[in-house]
Amino acid sequence: MxxxxxxxxxxxxxxxxxxxxxxxxxxxxxxTAQDPVxxxxxxxxxxxxxxxxxxxxxxRKEELxxxxxxxxxxxxxxxxxxxxxxxxxxxxxxxxxxGDMAKTSDLEGPASDARLRARxxxxxxxxxxxxxxxxxxxxxxxVANLITEMGLTVRAAADPDKLVKLDRLxxxxxxxxxxxxxxxxxxxxxxNERRAGFARSLxxxxxxxxxxxxxxxRLHALRALAGSNADPKxxxxxxxxxxxxxxxxxxxxxxxxxxxxxxxxxxYLKELELxxxxxxxxxxxxxxxxxxxxxxxxxxxxDADAVVRSRCAEALRVCAQVxxxxxxxxPEDRKDLPSSSEYTRPQIDAIKRKRGAxxxxxxxxxxWRCASRWCRPWSGSATHGIDSPNPP
Length: 392
Hints:
Elements: H1 7-33, H2 36-45, H3 57-82, H4 86-94, H5 108-134, H6 137-150, H7 160-171, H8 177-196, H9 203-209, H10 215-227, H11 232-245, H12 249-271, H13 283-296, H14 306-327, H15 340-353, H16 355-360, H17 364-379
Helix pairs in contact: 2-4, 3-5, 4-5, 6-10, 7-8, 9-10, 10-12, 11-12, 11-13, 12-13, 12-14, 13-14, 13-15, 14-17, 15-17
């Protein structure tokens, strides 16, 4: 039996339909409100604008700075209050809407984004340190893996104080010699940090994890030290210490493999130098890594484990090939390379100290064929015997 519609029932049905439509319309906005990274992305697309035809230049700069200061306060509350998990902080660092690297006449925009992004980076580092200090073993291993994943994908977050200082030093029309030296040093330092990526700023935390009480955490941390593009000087030294003192064969194997990965990643990033990626390397980075690997790899050539010996020999072979390519370039193309005495000499000396072990290892023929290529032109009488394909 059909039911007739009375005015009261009609109003009730219409109200119910309107309520459903309102809920459906409010769904996306509610989801956006619960997504702090999405909200941050929308905010970064908005740039304060002050018309320059209505105000003097000084007044416009003042109004623009005021607008960006208000924006910093608003986004600072979002960053500090709602970006809480590692996933959210990582996604925020990866946003493509950041304008801290933009080239524009208005300096307030890039400076504001640099401050905000550095704030997120600082929060991420603080959370990592909290896990390293007080986390359980699973959390520590997970953090080590997370840093590895970020190693080649997340660009560095520049220190805003350094950027402000560099801007001040660059504005002077006639800088003093000391100011010019300080300015050039800051430029080099910031450029090095940008090439290295964000994960390198966590080298200290990774090294602390390599000294954890449990083997489970130590092994994950050693892999992170090798795969996160960490500081090559500190990473290679840590691997060398493990090769020389650790009684755990698994740790020594990962350390030996880490030396191979250090030079492999540096060389890989060098090939990507011109592709505008978040992390890259130049020739000097490759040579610095090469020198550090060759300084510590011979330690493992006398190890009791065959895998350790093999991986250390492989590290030396790769380093020899890298140097052979770099130093066999025409003289006019080698002007940008560092002095050979700074990088080649430590490598030659390190090999000389272990040349007996090298000659006994299986890499003898392959390695010395490559090594002799780069030792001979810069060796002189001081390296007599080491540039021979069959050393004593």
